[in-house]
Specification:
The protein is mainly β. The protein has a single domain, classed as Jelly Rolls (Sandwich), CATH 2.60.120.40. Helix content is 0%, strand content 51%. Strands 2, 4, 5, 6, 8 and 10 form a 6-stranded antiparallel beta sheet that branches. Strands 1, 3, 7, 9 and 11 form a 5-stranded antiparallel beta sheet that branches. The protein is elongated and about 60 Å long. The termini are far apart. The model has no long low-confidence stretch (mean pLDDT 87).
Length: 130
């Protein structure tokens, strides 16, 4: 869960119609250093079928080194995607392009996805630098 004290902003997108593989739901270019803290996805319309998988990419590289950890929705129920472990690639630098992408498309409409961006983790000063 993201700490609201450190959140810089959100990248969020919504697709009201059926999503398609490779579709970009939202994109941004970073204007400051930061890190991706959390990703949440859901389907607002019930009745879909198949499996829809959402990926978040920085400069066209997935945040997850294991694709099985990406947020996934299987079946026709509305609600939050399952899976979606915390990403293991999170650093965002000025000029990076961050995208929310449909990696695999089932027959789902009303897909929403949000990424929380926060200030970067800073290392405390080393005692040797004093």
């Amino acid at each position: 869960m993201a700490d609201p004290v450190h959140i810089q902003g959100f990248l969020s997108g919504y697709v009201s119609t059926n999503v398609s593989g490779g579709q970009v739901i939202a994109a941004m270019i970073a204007v400051s250093d930061g890190q991706i803290r959390s990703v949440a996805c859901g389907v607002s319309a019930s009745g879909g079928s198949g499996t829809t998988i959402i990926d978040v990419q920085i400069n066209n590289q997935s945040l997850w080194t294991d694709p099985a950890n990406r947020p996934t929705n299987t079946g026709g129920a509305a609600g939050r995607f399952t899976g979606g472990r915390l990403p293991n690639r999170r650093a965002v630098r000025i000029g990076d392009i961050v995208k929310i992408v449909v990696a695999a498309a089932g027959n789902h409409s009303g897909v929403v996805a949000t990424v929380a961006l926060e200030e970067p983790q800073r290392q405390p000063p080393s005692p040797l630098s004093s």
